[in-house]
Amino acid sequence: MKNSKPQVIIIGAGVIGICSAYYLQKFGVRVTVLEQNEISSGASYGNAGLIVPSHSIPLPSPDALKMGLKSIFEKQSPLYIQPKFDLKLFRWLFNFAKNCNAKNIKKVTKTCIDFSLASANEYSKLINEENLNCNFVQNGTLSLFASKEMFNQYFKKYKLLEENGISVKKMSTKEICDTYPQVKPNIAGGLFKKGDAHINPQKFVKELSKIVTSNGGEILENTKVTGFEIQSDEIVKIQTEFKDFSADHIVIAAGAWSPILSKIVGNELPIQPAKGYSITIPQDENKIDTPMMLAEARVGANPLSDKSFRLAGTLELSGLNFSVNKKRVQKIIDSGQDYLRKEYFKHISKSKIWYGFRPLTPDGLPIIEKSSKVKNLTFASGHGVLGMTLGPITGLTVAEIITENPTTINTKPFSLNRFN
User: Fold this and answer.
1) Burial class of 326 by CB neighbour count within 10 A (0 to 12, 13 to 18, 19+)
2) Which residue in 194, 255, 303, 355 has the most C-beta neighbors within 10 A?
């Protein structure tokens, strides 16, 4: 494809799909994006909007394993595994458990930091070049700790980040309360990571999608892909509920729905949908302007704009379950009030509740590579809670793979073969 102008169809109009479309156009490729709902209507809509290289320590860890086992009996746990007979979930949990060791944590953290920093660099370039209005601010993130035990435990864990170039500053309770009047004085301390940033996730995806369409791309909403016609190891037709499409190459960037589509062509993606919730709360004077991670609760508090902030968190492994667990939502709100002063919750009655599904792999890294079953298909999914962080670099990598250009990053850690 190096010297041609191929037509590429991307399935999914979240941050990964739209970034892939944007960078493919940079390489002179014609793009069409098919979205089963609306642009940025899935996990790219209601997430915390954090761009966090400091969040590179993977979910699979001895602590997460203990929490997962404990969660079977505690439905309000930050990580909840719904007890049910599901062979795919059992296999996924088995592989997850295999990755809960120090060797994997060190390896994945290094890979994820390199990938995240490359993505943060792309964010800065992209937003400046395209003049995107998406509330992008790079003023760091602050992790807050309710207990000294957790504070000291995380400080030791974050040494791994510092070894790989991430700046982490220890802050006392007094330093935090003097700098951030939103925080309650009963916390044990905090860790500040100055290289992190935040964004309004939906505004970013929608603004970038406008650039894609203004450059000649087509984005078709409410167009659900139902199947593929394959001839001679190539997809010749993409079937939807309304009509069929054809393209030189196809990208599956459908988040938690990617395994459903990949299975049609014979590729099993080890991805589990992890339901998360967010609550967007209006704010006025003395606004929260720096993202805060509420450590024990595993909840993030992110300013979306001057007028609102968002609490987001929890991972619920219960399949594509579209019910709302009001107790888990209330737990997030209660957790926010444990760390932040009550005046920031005076407009809670006007808050907006959202849930969505993050695509989790067993080792904490995404899958970005061409299919082994069909020649003209590439996967870009499994980013877990780092979809916003890794969006631009994933899009660039997808474009480089499809146009057969050297990749900016080493793609070997993102191969599907690592699970065999």
Assistant:
1) exposed
2) 255
Q: How does pLDDT run across 365-415, given as a tens digit for each residue?
A: 999 999 999 999 999 999 999 999 999 999 999 999 999 999 999 999 999
Select from 359, 347, 361, 374 the least CA-distant residue to 418.
361
Cβ(276)–Cβ(324) below 8 Å = no
Q: What is the pTM of this model?
A: 0.96
Count of residues for the chain? 420
Cα(373)–Cα(60) distance, integer angstroms: 29
Q: Which of 6-10, 79-83, 228-232, 328-332 has the lowest mean pLDDT?
A: 79-83
Q: Given a cut of 70, is residue 34 above it in pLDDT?
A: yes
Contact between 251 and 8 under an 8 Å Cβ cutoff? The reply is yes
Taking CA 242 as the corner, what is the angle to CA 239 and CA 243, rounded to the nearest 5 degrees? 50
CA atoms 89, 274, 300, 337: torsion sign: negative
Distances (CA, A) of 404 to 29, 30, 408: 12, 16, 12
Three-state secondary structure string covering the chain: CCCCCCEEEEECCCHHHHHHHHHHHHCCCEEEEECCCCCCCCHHHHCCCEECHHHCCCCCCHHHHHHHHHHCCCCCCCEEECCCCCHHHHHHHHHHHHCCCHHHHHHHHHHHHHHHHHHHHHHHHHHHHHCCCCCCECCCEEEEECCHHHHHHHHHHCHHHHHCCCCCEEECHHHHHHHCCCECCCCCEEEEECCCEECCHHHHHHHHHHHHHHCCCEEECCCCEEEEEEECCEEEEEEECCCEECCCEEEECCHHHHHHHHHHHCCCCCCEEEEEEEEEEECCCCCCCCCEEECCCCEEEEEEECCEEEEEEEEEECCCCCCCCHHHHHHHHHHHHHHECHHHHCCHHHCEEEEEEEEECCCCCCEEEECCCCCCEEEEECCHHHHHHHHHHHHHHHHHHHCCCCCCCCCHHHCHHHHC
Q: Which two tokens stand for residue 311?
A: 């609490």
* Residue 34 and residue 11 in contact, taking contact as beta carbons nearer than 8 Å: yes
Among residues 291, 284, 290, 300, the alpha carbon closest in space to that of 336 is found at 300
- The tens digit of pLDDT for each residue in 189-219 reads 999 999 999 999 999 999 999 999 999 999 9
pLDDT at 3: 46
Cα(132)–Cα(110) distance, integer angstroms = 30
